[in-house]
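Renewal narrative, Specific Aim 1. Our central claim is that a sequence can be written position by position from structural information alone. The example that follows is taken directly from our test logs and has not been curated for this report. It begins with the structure tokens describing the chain, in the order in which they were read.
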């Protein structure tokens, strides 16, 4: 039987751990577990494999590899792909959908998302990030801590707006774009303005 609020995170690396912390801070998920290809035959809890993360929820555990996803589909209503590689993130996002697992939207309580902004499935909005009015963050895009997506901007699918980066008003960020830390993506994208679109 599917629990209404269980979350399965695909990827138990650094971004996976951060995604779990955001999900835990949201306070809406019961069980949080991981699939990762680093999983070994002996069941290893996340705290054992990542001792620096020994504090926190004891419900977080590494339970299998990506290939095990169909086996766990009946236990998890929500999934989240915490993988930086965009090709793999896209593939695993499609596998969530194929297995009838809804891609969760993760928003840290200390982030600001305008009521008129649109977040699509699989997005993650980290602490102190801002998504302003009328902005759209498309499927499985990550908005890192301190980043700002200004009003009426559009961030395409599978993008990563890194720490303290800014997507200017009315800009359209193409699919699978990585906007580096501290840079500015302007609506005159791709013209190589110094300091922009780095």
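The sequence written for that structure reads:
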């Amino acid at each position: 039987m599917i629990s209404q609020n269980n979350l399965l995170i695909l990827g138990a690396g650094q971004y996976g751990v951060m995604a779990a912390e955001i999900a835990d801070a949201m306070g809406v998920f019961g069980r949080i577990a991981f699939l990762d290809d680093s999983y070994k035959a002996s069941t290893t809890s996340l705290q054992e494999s990542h001792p620096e993360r020994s504090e926190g929820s004891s419900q977080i555990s590494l339970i299998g590899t990506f290939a095990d996803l169909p086996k766990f589909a009946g236990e998890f209503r929500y999934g989240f792909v915490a993988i930086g590689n965009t090709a793999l993130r896209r593939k695993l996002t499609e596998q969530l959908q194929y297995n009838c697992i809804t891609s969760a939207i993760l928003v840290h309580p200390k982030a600001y998302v305008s009521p008129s902004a649109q977040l699509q499935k699989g997005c993650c909005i980290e602490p102190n990030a801002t998504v302003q009015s009328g902005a759209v963050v498309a499927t499985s895009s990550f908005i890192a801590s301190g980043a700002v997506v200004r009003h009426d901007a559009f961030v395409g699918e599978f993008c990563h707006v890194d720490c303290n980066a800014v997507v200017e008003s009315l800009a359209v960020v193409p699919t699978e774009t990585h906007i580096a830390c501290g840079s500015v993506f302007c609506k005159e994208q791709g013209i190589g303005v110094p300091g922009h679109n780095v």
